[in-house]
Amino acid sequence: TVLRAEHIWLDGKLMKWDEGNVHVMTHALHYGLGVFEGIRAYKTHDGRLAVFRLREHIRRLLDSAHIIMLQIPYSEDELVEATVDLLRKQKQQFANGAYLRPVAFMGDGAMGLGAVNPTRVGITAWDWGAYLGDKGIKEGIRAKVSSFTRNHVNVNMVRGKITGQYVNSILAKREAVLAGYDEAILLDISGFVAEASGENIFLVNKKGVIKTPPLSSPVLDGITRDTVLKLLRDAGHTTIEEVTVTRDALYIANEVFFTGTAAEITPVREVDNRQIGDGKPGPISKYVQDTYFRVVRGQEARYADWLTYV
Ligand code: PMP
């Protein structure tokens, strides 16, 4: 399906979708110097529209830009407001929720790696269902450990969500899908589990210990990862470890699940053709998924601060 909405926000202005174009000489198109975010807005239980952890996403966008020394000519508040404005303008179309994509990149002007051109900033919203499929989010997906390695932390700037870095993710994703799997799991250069092509990863082992690779490994500091850790700790789970994970620990885990704004909480029912647990989403995965959906829909008063109503 072709993506389409009524409006976009580009360089400070709301405009018609078709007007949101850039030149083929856009520097970032050639060299990948850009940053982006993926954010979701949900229809809340009382019929309103709320963006989940908007400010944290905008802050990460600004941090990503800082890392690659990309000047963004808008403040955090301005970008938060622009995102809300874009949704407000299209409230009818997105009454059931939306996926939001702020992107900032080096525009056209000079060419070459030493060029410094004005930064372009766009925000788009569109309808995006379950990223790994409706069946996947309910029943779990099949993942494959990739032949592609996550870049070393001094090669990729892993605290940043940087456009050019996603070639590595795309290579892994395509390889997995072409081989008949739903998603790729990437290892770091030492062979330890890092993350999926666009999600962080969690496992629950046979002793009930919940594990996820630490932020010192080449993984994005996922906002959903952070949300899930908080939800689990607040629910009284004390056996949560941010530790190095080996690929065979995934094979013998009771549960594996992915976390991400697009993928939300997606259970993994198979890794490298080894069934995980009994091949169905386990109790912790289900608890996390249910709670996450209650939180984003405004049904958990305790986490009301995470919602920005449109
Ligand atoms: N890792 C990668 C490589 C990603 O692209 C994403 C999606 N932004 C994530 C993890 C999950 O991050 P978040 O929960 O903030 O969406």
UniProtKB/TrEMBL annotation:
Keywords: Amino-acid biosynthesis, Aminotransferase, Branched-chain amino acid biosynthesis, Pyridoxal phosphate, Transferase. InterPro entries: Aminotrans_IV, Aminotrans_IV_CS, Aminotransferase-like, B_amino_transI, BCAT-like_C, BCAT-like_N, BCAT_family, Class-IV_PLP-Dep_Aminotrnsfr. Transmembrane segments: none annotated. GO terms for molecular function: L-isoleucine-2-oxoglutarate transaminase activity; L-leucine-2-oxoglutarate transaminase activity; L-valine-2-oxoglutarate transaminase activity. Pathway: Amino-acid biosynthesis; L-leucine biosynthesis; L-leucine from 3-methyl-2-oxobutanoate: step 4/4; Amino-acid biosynthesis; L-isoleucine biosynthesis; L-isoleucine from 2-oxobutanoate: step 4/4; Amino-acid biosynthesis; L-valine biosynthesis; L-valine from pyruvate: step 4/4. It is an enzyme of class 2 (transferase). The keyword Transferase applies. Its cofactor is pyridoxal 5'-phosphate. It catalyses: L-leucine + 2-oxoglutarate = 4-methyl-2-oxopentanoate + L-glutamate; L-isoleucine + 2-oxoglutarate = (S)-3-methyl-2-oxopentanoate + L-glutamate; L-valine + 2-oxoglutarate = 3-methyl-2-oxobutanoate + L-glutamate. Its EC number is 2.6.1.42. GO terms for cellular component: cytosol. GO terms for biological process: isoleucine biosynthetic process; L-leucine biosynthetic process; L-valine biosynthetic process. SUPFAM superfamilies: D-aminoacid aminotransferase-like PLP-dependent enzymes. Pfam families: Aminotran_4. Belongs to the class-IV pyridoxal-phosphate-dependent aminotransferase family. Acts on leucine, isoleucine and valine. This is Branched-chain-amino-acid aminotransferase. It comes from Corallococcus coralloides (strain ATCC 25202 / DSM 2259 / NBRC 100086 / M2) (Myxococcus coralloides).
